[in-house]
Design brief:
The chain has 206 residues and is mostly beta strands. Helices cover 8% and strands 69% of the residues. The protein has one domain: Porin, CATH 2.40.160.
Length: 206
């Protein structure tokens, strides 16, 4: 039900302002997920997290006018993996963790430099779709169903034609809440992206 409400709200906002959109973009690439926790002061607990390459794909609508703001919206899918090594009260576990999420992002802060460099900052919401574990009983790790965080994007635009733009880009996500709990103590996430995008310039309707 929550997913249906989120999707309806997002596409309602897009539909209301689509006539003002300047660009529509499809992009994707590699995502590296890095977990961390704040349990350094606990002598009975230690953790080591390492990244595995995952992938992401998104579609975005750029430069929508929303109450005089130029806003960027995106909807995407991500699958990422990490290696976890956890020592807790004499128990040692080595885990390979995989997670798939549906993402919704809104960027109210948008800047363009030298007519070819885009910087966007905003919020991204991640909704849990599925997960899997290797090396541990699933009941020992709890994966959160949703997460909200800060998202940023840096893109370099190269015109292919009057309507098409090739756009290599870097991205970053910092999650506010814990993604993992249980045997793992409140592991939070940083995600790093290397993407390739293709933009199509849209003609504004009058």
């Amino acid at each position: 039900m929550k997913l249906k409400c989120i999707v309806a709200l997002l596409f309602g906002l897009i539909e209301c302002n689509f006539s003002q959109a300047q660009n529509i973009e499809v992009f994707g690439g590699v995502v590296m997920n890095q977990y961390y926790d704040n349990e350094d002061q606990n002598p009975r607990y230690s953790s080591d997290y390492s990244s595995r390459a995952g992938f992401n794909t998104e579609i975005a609508i750029d430069s929508l006018n929303w109450d005089s703001l130029h806003v960027r919206f995106s909807v995407g899918f991500e699958r990422y993996s990490s290696d976890l090594e956890i020592a807790n009260n004499g128990t040692y576990e080595k885990v390979i963790f995989n997670k798939s999420v549906l993402t919704f992002a809104v960027y109210p802060a948008n800047f363009k430099f030298f007519d070819m460099i885009d910087f966007n900052a905003g919020l991204k919401y991640s909704l849990h779709l599925s997960d899997s574990y290797t090396g541990i009983e699933k009941s020992e790790i709890k994966s959160t169903k949703m997460n909200l965080g800060i998202s940023a994007r840096l893109a370099f635009d190269f015109n292919i034609s009057n309507e098409l733009v090739f756009s290599p880009q870097l991205g970053y996500f910092f999650g506010f809440g814990s993604e993992l709990d249980g045997l793992v103590k409140e592991a939070r996430t940083n995600r790093y992206y290397i993407n390739i995008g293709l933009q199509k310039k849209l003609t504004k309707k009058k």
